[in-house]
Amino acid sequence: MSAEEPLFRIVRGVPTAEELAALVGAVMVRTRPVAAAAPAPVSHWARSARPTAGPRSGPGAWRASGLPR
């Protein structure tokens, strides 16, 4: 494909400037590589091995200290 060759061509009809801009935008979005995928979810098992902030004070703190996080 040379630099002079168009990326696509309209076969039938006469699109308006807005329709042509929408088409170019849609093609550009579909052909753009994905920048970054969403981070993988962290399992409960892996999360349980991370350090925590420790016990908290306040109402219900004694009871909450015995419950899993």
From TrEMBL:
<dbReference type="Pfam" id="PF13822">
    <property type="entry name" value="ACC_epsilon"/>
</dbReference>
<protein>
    <submittedName>
        <fullName>Acyl-CoA carboxylase epsilon subunit</fullName>
    </submittedName>
</protein>
<dbReference type="GO" id="GO:0004658">
    <property type="term" value="F:propionyl-CoA carboxylase activity"/>
</dbReference>
<dbReference type="InterPro" id="IPR032716">
    <property type="entry name" value="ACC_epsilon"/>
</dbReference>
<feature type="region of interest" description="Disordered">
    <location>
        <begin position="41"/>
        <end position="69"/>
    </location>
</feature>
<dbReference type="GO" id="GO:0003989">
    <property type="term" value="F:acetyl-CoA carboxylase activity"/>
</dbReference>
